[in-house]
Amino acid sequence: MAIEQRAVQIPLQFHFEKALYRLKGELPDHFKEARRLYGEKLLPDDAWYEEHKGKFIAIIGNEILVDEDDDSLMRNAYQKWGYRPIFMSQVTREKKRVIIRPRARKRQIPKS
After folding, report:
1. Is 95 or 62 the better-scoring residue by pLDDT?
2. Taking the mean position of all CA atoms in its chain, how far away is CA 110?
3. Separation of alpha carbons 52 and 43, rounded Å
4. What residues are paired with 66 via a beta bridge?
5. So what's the pLDDT on residue 11?
6. What's the rounded Cα separation, in Å, for the pair 2 and 71?
7. Which of 18, 24, 52, 96 is deepest in the core (most CB within 10 A)?
């Protein structure tokens, strides 16, 4: 019996960083660097903070996008840098807790 062989084509949208993030369970280096830039250099700078307070920012490397609206910021960031882990935050000095909700299940479990 002959075994059928097929070439597997990986879509161009597959991102190596995303795969590594899922395998290793840690954030990519560029994300950690962007978070460090935001927390250690941008936020402590009073002039920068006053100019951008309340706005939303996205950072990859040394590039920063700023927008008034978080939805348009996400759209612009993914359009510019592709769908990959991007550090995004609202410019504020208050501590915020981020909650990532799990996906909804397809099947409802009846309440007892």
Report:
1. 62
2. 35
3. 10
4. 57
5. 44
6. 52
7. 52
CA-to-CA separations, 48 to 1, 8, 101, in angstroms, rounded: 69, 49, 32
pTM: 0.64
Give ∠ CA 70-54-33 in degrees, rounded to 5. Answer: 70
Domain residue spans in the chain? 34-90
Average pLDDT, integer, range 38-50? 92
Residue 51 and residue 45 in contact, taking contact as beta carbons nearer than 8 Å: no
Q: Are 59 and 86 in contact (CB under 8 A)?
A: yes
Tokens linked to 60: 């990859």
54: left (phi over 0), alpha (psi -120 to 50) or beta: left
Q: Is 76 exposed, middle or buried (0-12, 13-18, 19+ CB in 10 A)?
A: middle
**Rounded distance between C-alpha atoms, residue 15 and residue 82, angstroms:** 9
Comparing 73 with 22, which gets the higher pLDDT? 73
Distance CA 21, CA 37 (A): 20
